Every structure is written in structure tokens, then in C-alpha cells.
Amino acid sequence: MRTLVAVVIGLVAGFFAGIVIDQIIGVIGLLTTGDLGGFRYLPLVLAVVGAVVAVLIERRMQRGGTPRR
Asked: Against a cut of 0.85, is the pTM above it?
């Protein structure tokens, strides 16, 4: 259940982060070149990355969070 919650939170957070970063890139591209730039699938890619990272963090917390040497 905790893993499912971590996946959902990672998906949502990654999606919103992707939208924000895509808009920032678009505005910078518009100001510098006059053309709307951006990455079409950046929110979806970052949603998947966010879900994977959230699961990895959740698994590390279950192990006790001991750092590797």
C-alpha cells in the first residue's frame, strides 16, 4: 500500500514538475528566439521518472535508510 501511494505521489509530482519546467523552457525560448520552444512529452517523462524515484526512496526507507559504502 505504501508503494502504491509513493507511485501516485511520484506520478503527480513529476507531472506537475514537467509542466512547470516545460513552461519555463517555452518562455525562455520565446524571449530569446521568438519561437515557442519546449518538449512535448516532458511532463509524461518526468511523471514516470518521479514514480521510479519515489519507489526507490520508499524502498530505502523500508530498509532503514542505511547508506551504502
From this structure: no
